[in-house]
Automatic annotation (TrEMBL):
Residues 85-116 have a biased composition (Basic and acidic residues). GO terms for cellular component: nucleolus. It comes from Papilio xuthus (Asian swallowtail butterfly). Residues 162-171 have a biased composition (Low complexity). Residues 117-138 have a biased composition (Basic residues). The lineage of its organism: Eukaryota, Metazoa, Ecdysozoa, Arthropoda, Hexapoda. It holds the Pfam family DUF1168. This is PRKR-interacting protein 1 homolog.
Length: 171
């Protein structure tokens, strides 16, 4: 009895409402039998030109009185030549777009590096300025307080130098 209920539930039609339902259905179908190999289609091959013929048999002459069959041969050769020229143009256009794309990517990368370097220099300059403010001796009457602050600043300088060297190692 329970087997019949399960089979009825499985045979219940599945309504696909959106793309995720379709994807889920495909995945479930693949996972029902994991031993079965999944078919991955080959990518489309690049179109290439046919090599030119070694020997042209039907050479068009300029003599009058060509037969009625010659027109079809001429039309076929003309169509073939136009297709070849179109292919060459499309190929050159594609190469031009690829070159432009790579050039643009390179420009963007260089601009980003320059911007990063500028910001890095600004950060380091700000850090040095803050360090020099801490380093300045305070004008006061007590020499002992200055010597203590000098010791503290020396210790903090060593810590900052270690931090800076570790920051440089990371970048």
């Amino acid at each position: 009895m329970s087997d019949k209920k399960e089979s009825k539930e499985e045979k219940k039609p599945i309504v696909i409402k959106n793309a995720t339902d379709l994807q889920r259905l495909k995945l479930e179908k693949l996972m029902k039998n994991p031993d079965k190999p999944a078919v991955i289609p080959e990518p489309p091959r690049q179109k290439t030109l046919a090599p030119p013929p070694d020997f042209v048999r039907n050479v068009m002459g300029s003599s009058a009185g060509a037969g009625s069959g010659e027109f079809h041969v001429y039309r076929h050769l003309r169509r073939k030549e136009y297709a070849r020229q179109k292919f060459i143009q499309e190929k050159s256009e594609k190469e031009k777009l690829d070159d432009e794309y790579h050039r643009k990517i390179e420009e963007n990368r260089k601009a980003a590096e320059e911007k990063t370097a500028k910001k890095r220099a600004k950060r380091l300059k700000k850090k040095q300025k803050a360090k020099s403010k801490m380093k300045k001796p305070k004008t006061g009457t007590e020499q002992s307080s200055q010597s203590e602050s000098d010791k503290n600043s020396d210790e903090s300088e060593e810590e900052n130098n270690e931090n800076i060297s570790s920051d440089n190692d990371k970048s």
